[in-house]
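Appendix B, record 7
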Amino acid sequence: MHNYSAEDSLFIQIEIKKIRKARNNAIAVFMVLFLVCFAVWLYVFSDRWLASTDKQTVYHSPTISLYTIFLFPTLLFIGLSWALSIKNQKYISVLQHLDSHDLGIYRKYTSILAQRYAAIAPYIFCKNELIFFPLFGCKKIPVNQIKRIETKCVHNYRDTYSYHVYFYNDATKIYQTTMHQIAAFDFLQKQLLEENPNLTIIARNQIPSYLRTKDKHTHY
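Structure tokens (predicted):
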């Protein structure tokens, strides 16, 4: 942990609380889905069991049993909750080790994100590395290894958009990621250009201009 100012220390504490709250909310959603799935499977089993004349055969059927009904949703719930907790803990650990310069970048970056996404930013600049946090593991890319990035805007269902970024070194692609906020997408390119003015950015297609004009969070 670095020696932060009182303001920076308070900011980090607030961020950690937001991250943990977001984690707890996500686990609560998983729990609801688990209970709904379990209830549906239990209903199907009960309906088949009550309609059968040979209830022992249904109960011991390998294709549908109380054991099967309980096991699959439980393993899925535990697995997703565990992966999410590990992801959030890694994020918090990186956040606590930011120096004053990187924390300043982080604060500027998160301030432009829409509030509903601000708890979990899709990437962090830390010690000359760009760190991403997928559901499993984390990906660290030294900024000086990024020689070229290519971008692509994808029109999704119900007039929503996602923004794909492909990272290349001198020869090959080293990583790709997808973002759902144009503010995070724009800030990433801006910050990488500040870190490396010789960076090449290639847009595979054009982003509709109205996407930037309608979102006040994209102005920095």
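Remarks on this record: The longest strand covers residues 148-155. The radius of gyration is 23 Å.
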